[in-house]
């Protein structure tokens, strides 16, 4: 398995400077559209329920990265460094906005879901670079001590550059979107849905670009990536449910934390991978690209499947 996954590493999706600018601008519009659905009340409601807020954020921002690192250490001999780093990158990304629909369909606490997604997305300006640098740094040190350098050369994770990218692509559009929605509520209602639909189209478009010149590799090795993402995503969902159960949350809140912990903004992960200032073109990071891209597809399947199951099941009072 290790040797097979190594075949993915030479893959690199390179964009021209103008092409990268277009992608970044589109992502800013996507995040602006996401922010149109965020209201100040979503944050104030979390403040009124500190136990729910802290438990949910702990599950998303601390527990999942930790569980991811433990999985990587346990299965280290089967995972290439790039695949392991891809798993860390996904765990470091904030929750995905599609989780709100899943929570609603699953008869979960939709208000909590929206609040957690909004909060984790705003906090991502700090938490994504921190988690990726911290856990990636630990993994890099572990590999250097046991199996040589990572990616054929020492990997220096520039947390400042990650912070700058996340701040520009997430932080600024989100703040502007929230302010716009408060100032122009009528216009917001008209453009909110089209912009949010654009986010899914945009993400799928990035995946197509990532795989269109590597179809044979995708077909040959998707089985291994499928198993890895299946296990990782499964533990993400299980982590959310377990944390909620440990803190004795209600059934609706357990459903919410399960979905919020298992659904992540993989689109942001791909944008970070495509940024040559963070991952220079001479780094062979194909394994990371495959993991992050397939995560973005699979978590929709797993999340909707789980939501459909809970939709048919009565909430336990």
Please describe what this structure looks like.
The chain has 317 residues and is an all-alpha fold. It has one domain (2-311): Na+/H+ antiporter like fold (Up-down Bundle), CATH 1.20.1530. It is 78% helix and 0% strand. It has helices at 2-6, 17-35, 40-48, 50-74, 81-92, 98-105, 110-147, 159-183, 185-211, 215-246, 251-262, 266-274, 286-311. The radius of gyration is 19 Å and the shape is globular. Mean pLDDT is 80; it is low at 146-151.
Please give a handful of descriptors for the protein shown:
317 residues; mainly alpha; Na+/H+ antiporter like fold; 13 helices; 78% helix; 0% strand
N-to-C span: 46 Å
- How many distinct folded domains? 1
The secondary structure category is mainly alpha
For the record, the CATH architecture stands as: Up-down Bundle
CATH class: Mainly Alpha
Form type = globular
Q: What is the CATH topology? A: Na+/H+ antiporter like fold
Seen as an oligomer or otherwise, the chain set is: single chain
Order of helices and strands: HHHHHHHHHHHHH
What's the story with the biggest beta sheet?
none
Helicity level: over 70%
* Rg, Cα atoms, Å: 19 Å
Look at the structure and give the mean pLDDT.
80
Low-confidence stretches: 146-151
For the secondary structure, the number of strands is 0
| Proportion of residues in β-strands | under 5%
How many helical stretches? 13
């Amino acid at each position: 398995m290790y040797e097979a996954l190594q075949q993915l590493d030479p893959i690199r999706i390179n964009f021209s400077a103008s092409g990268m600018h277009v992608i970044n601008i589109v992502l800013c519009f996507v995040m602006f559209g996401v922010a149109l659905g965020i209201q100040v009340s979503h944050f104030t409601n979390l403040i009124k329920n500190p136990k729910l807020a802290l438990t949910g954020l702990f599950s998303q921002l601390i527990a999942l990265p930790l569980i991811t690192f433990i999985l990587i250490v346990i299965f280290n001999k089967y995972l290439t460094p790039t695949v392991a780093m891809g798993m860390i990158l996904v765990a470091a990304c904030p929750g995905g906005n599609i989780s709100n629909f899943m929570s609603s369909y699953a008869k979960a606490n939709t208000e909590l879901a929206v609040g957690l997604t909004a909060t984790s997305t705003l906090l991502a300006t700090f938490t994504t670079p921190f988690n990726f640098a911290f856990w990636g740094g630990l993994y890099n040190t572990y590999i250097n001590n046991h199996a040589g350098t990572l990616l054929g050369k020492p990997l220096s994770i520039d947390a400042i550059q990650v912070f700058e990218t996340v701040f520009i692509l997430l932080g600024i559009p989100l703040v502007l979107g929230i302010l716009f929605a408060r100032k122009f509520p009528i216009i917001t209602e008209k453009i909110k849905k089209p912009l949010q639909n654009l986010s899914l189209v945009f993400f799928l478009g990035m995946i197509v670009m990532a795989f269109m010149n590597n179809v044979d590799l995708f077909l040959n090795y998707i089985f291994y990536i499928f198993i890895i993402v299946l296990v990782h995503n499964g533990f993400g969902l299980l982590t959310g449910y377990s944390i909620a159960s440990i803190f004795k949350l209600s059934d609706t809140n357990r459903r919410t934390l399960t979905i919020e912990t298992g659904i992540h903004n993989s689109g942001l992960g791909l944008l970070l991978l495509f940024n040559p200032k963070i991952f220079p073109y001479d780094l062979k990071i194909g394994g990371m690209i495959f993991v992050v891209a397939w995560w973005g597809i699979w978590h929709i399947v797993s999340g909707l499947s789980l939501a459909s199951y809970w939709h048919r099941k009565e909430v336990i009072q």
